[in-house]
Amino acid sequence: MISMIYKSYPKINLFLSIGKKNKKNNLHKLNSVFLLVENSVYDEIKINLNEKEEDEISYFDSTNKTLIIENCIFKKTISYLKEKEIIDKNLFFKIKIKKNIPLFSGLGSGSSNVACLFKFLLEIKQINYFQIKKHILNIGSDVLFFIKNYKAAFVYKYGNKVKKVKNPNLKIKLFFTNIECSTKKVFEDYETNQSMCKNSYLKQFLYFKIKRYWMLENDLKESVFNLYKDLSIKHETLQKKYDKKIFLTGSGGTLFLIEDK
């Protein structure tokens, strides 16, 4: 029986520029540079085929205490792949996930986790890249980045376009605030109250020709801090402590610092 163990790393948005929503697919276009963070925490995932005619998916925290996860992305993905007849309906999985990355941290851990399932399916030749690219938006907008195993990438359109870029080899320090931010609420506030920004440094930073990273911004920052005052206070406190720019990744609630090497 094939069994695979994966390290599921988080990612940060070095910058995040949000465009208008497509009313047909209900998704926003975006421009961002994703960086894989390998010098910090990661989830541990074990996947193998199940001899029982059922999927067994279990989550544990860092102390091995069982977690109850609503809207499990693995169940959703397996159901979708079988419904679309991409994988055999008689294929069942046993998946164990040790969650070391905090939930609702804005680090893409759910997408990183389910990318491991796609890597497993590729390994056992139950799926191909064409099928993945065709259906990826129905699974999660960040998933393709993790499947490709890039250290750094320019991610655009709806997250389904991923272009490898030179890894800037930045030393990233993550700050887990344990403040749960709702992506849905953040985008609703952004659509209602914030103007659509354009990151004028996109082309320069795409190729990392300019090293002034402190100039980069996250278009969702104002909405996140507007909705979650404690996170805004934490951000200000950290900036005073380190006397450097503290960044917000994704829709919160993790903050990060680019450290000196």
Automatic annotation (TrEMBL):
* Biological process (GO), any one: terpenoid biosynthetic process
User: PANTHER family attached here?
Assistant: 4-DIPHOSPHOCYTIDYL-2-C-METHYL-D-ERYTHRITOL KINASE, CHLOROPLASTIC (PTHR43527)
User: What Pfam families does UniProt report for this protein, alphabetically?
Assistant: GHMP_kinases_N (PF00288)
Outline the extent of the GHMP kinase N-terminal domain.
74-129
Give the organism the record lists: Malacoplasma penetrans (strain HF-2)
Protein's recorded name: 4-diphosphocytidyl-2-C-methyl-D-erythritol kinase
Q: Which Gene3D superfamilies match?
A: 3.30.230.10, GHMP kinase, C-terminal domain
A Gene Ontology molecular function term of the record: 4-(cytidine 5'-diphospho)-2-C-methyl-D-erythritol kinase activity
Its keywords, alphabetically, are:
ATP-binding, Kinase, Nucleotide-binding, Transferase
